[in-house]
Design a protein that fits this description.
By secondary structure, the chain is mainly beta. The chain has one domain: Deoxyuridine triphosphatase (dUTPase) (Deoxyuridine 5'-Triphosphate Nucleotidohydrolase, Chain A), CATH 2.70.40.10. Helix content is 7%, strand content 40%. The longest helix has 9 residues. The protein is globular and about 50 Å long. The mean pLDDT is 97. It catalyses: dCTP + H2O + H(+) = dUTP + NH4(+). Pathway: Pyrimidine metabolism; dUMP biosynthesis; dUMP from dCTP (dUTP route): step 1/2.
Length: 175
């Protein structure tokens, strides 16, 4: 069952679903529009092999990160971005993450992304550039998150390596 705006407001009011900071404007008909944070990490082209199984791999060599209120997404480049909002998802919910349709119509793309029941943190999302440069601003509603109630509460809620993340979370290795 997908939660409506009424359901979402009820979950938020009861503090079952925590959204901080909360702004009523992000509540949509069947989801929440999360806003773009000011942290950006662009994946750097390299011929070096990234070994996700080695704790000796210097992850930061493969990313160029900065903070900005406004930035340009270069054509065909890949970025990691974060949300303004910090979420705490109860174990009876999960969520599907989509790019807002206006941004998708500009040719921007995100991979299929799910938020697990029990997850807590800001969302780090990969974004692939369009065929032309696109300017984005921090604070823009950029992700549409659709919450669904699972058939029964999750027995082992998410407690993985990205639990509690703030800002852009680079890959945590080894796998």
């Amino acid at each position: 069952m997908i939660l409506s705006d009424f359901d979402l407001r009820s979950y938020i009011a009861a503090r079952r679903l925590v959204v901080e900071p909360f702004d009523e404007a992000i509540v949509r008909e069947n989801g929440l529009d999360l806003r773009l944070g000011d942290e950006v990490c662009m994946l750097v082209e390299s011929s070096d092999v990234f070994d996700p199984y080695s704790s000796d791999t210097d992850v930061s060599r493969f990313y160029r990160c900065w903070r900005a209120q406004e930035f340009v997404i270069e054509p065909h480049k890949r970025y990691l971005l974060t949300t303004v909002e910090y979420l705490k998802v109860p174990p009876e919910l999960m969520a599907f993450v989509e790019l807002r349709s206006t941004l998708a119509r500009l040719g921007l793309v995100i991979p299929p992304t799910i938020i697990d029941g029990g997850f807590e943190g800001q969302i780090t999302i990969e974004l692939q550039g369009s065929t032309f440069p696109v300017k984005l601003r921090a604070g823009t509603r950029f992700l549409h998150v659709v919450f669904a109630k699972v058939s029964s509460p999750i027995e082992r809620p998410y407690s993985g390596r990205y639990q509690g993340q703030r800002g852009v979370a680079l890959p945590r290795i080894p796998l």
